[in-house]
Structures are given as C-alpha cells and as structure tokens.
Fold this protein.
Amino acid sequence: MSFDEKYFSTHTYQNISFARFSQYWWSNRFFAMLARRYGRRGSRLLEIGSGLGHLVGQLEDDFDTFGLDLNHWAVARSKSETKRTQLQTASAQELPFGDSTFGVVLIKHIVEHLPDPARAIREISRVLEPNGILILATPNLDSLLKPLKGDQWIGYLDPTHISLKRPDEWLDLIRSANFSPLKIFADGFWNVPYIPRIPNAIQKLLFGSLGGFQATTGFVFLPVRWGESIIVIAKKQ
C-alpha cells in the first residue's frame, strides 16, 4: 500500500482528526506538550511524517518549524493547517538537511512503516544538534493487553507496518545512533474492546483512564508495557 490520498482517507486521519477533542486531537496535543517541555524554545523543530500538519502546526509559536512527509498530497493538504512551517516531500531515510540543523525531531508512528528504520534513526542523529531532542513513538509489541486482541491488535491492522519491533530493540537502535534515553513510557490502553460483551464506554473508562490522564495532564508515568505504543524521549550525546 502506498501513502496516498486513499491511505489518509481510510485511516485515523480522515476518520477522527477533524473532530475537536477526539483521540487523535488529544494525542497531537500531548506530543506538542512533550516538545515544549523537553525541547529548547525557539530552536528548529522537524516533524518527520507530518501528515496533514495537525501536530507541527501547533508548535509554530514555540519553534522554527519544519514538516516532512513522503506523500505529496498530504504535504499539499497540510498547508491549510500551518502558517509558517516549511514543508517538503522527502524520505525519513534520506533527510534533505545538513548536519546539526535541528534542536528537536518528532517522529510519531513512522518508524514502523520504514524498510530501514535504523537508517532513519541514524539520519535523525545526524541532523540533530548536540543535546538535541528526539521524540519517537511506535507500536508496542510488549503491550500487556496485546494478547487479548490477537490478530486484531492495532499494530497488526495496518499492512504498511513492516518494521514492528520490541521496545528493547528500538532502544538498542536509538542508543547505537548516539542517543541517551531520558524517558521511556507507554500511552495507555485505548484500543478497546479488550473483553467481549462489555460495552466500549465501560472499557474506555476501565482500561483507558490512566492513559487519558497522562495525555490530558502531560504527566508522564505509564510503564512501558502499559500501553499500545512505546514513547521514547532521548537526547543526542
């Protein structure tokens, strides 16, 4: 499957991204909070896989923002969500920037789509300045509730997820690219239903409350296995 208009029309982006206070909206708000907390305000920030521009557009008042995506259609559409962000089409595995260009790089749910994610992480290290911040999110093969979902687990449903790895494997790649992890945590159990015959609303309250609290407050505390995604915040050494 290619990352074209059809992809964006049949996945998370088109289904819920335009609904204020949707799960997707809260996720972008949370990652923007992380960027502001750990990144140096006023520095250059790059979002790799900027999609329709909903995340990088939130950060324009805090950083000199850049967005990069493989999809020409998405880059064109994201111009309506951004005012000052410099946008371009390019591959995460061949970043079109010089060494030590950025203070912050966001790569949210992109590495699992790449044939060579290790190369992309090395490229991120190259374009980050010393002490620059990497914020990375990807599906979590060690999720505690993943066995309850079976082949319907969220990480398996997208056929473009070609590089799923366990958290320890991602951390090895990150460390080998000259990064030192600062925070390693999960995003909570939001992929309901987990149990048959129990209403989704009850399951969202039962399983999703901790992740919801983390996302709304920005207080990072969930252990790695307590979520469908692993999130890593790392500093370039």
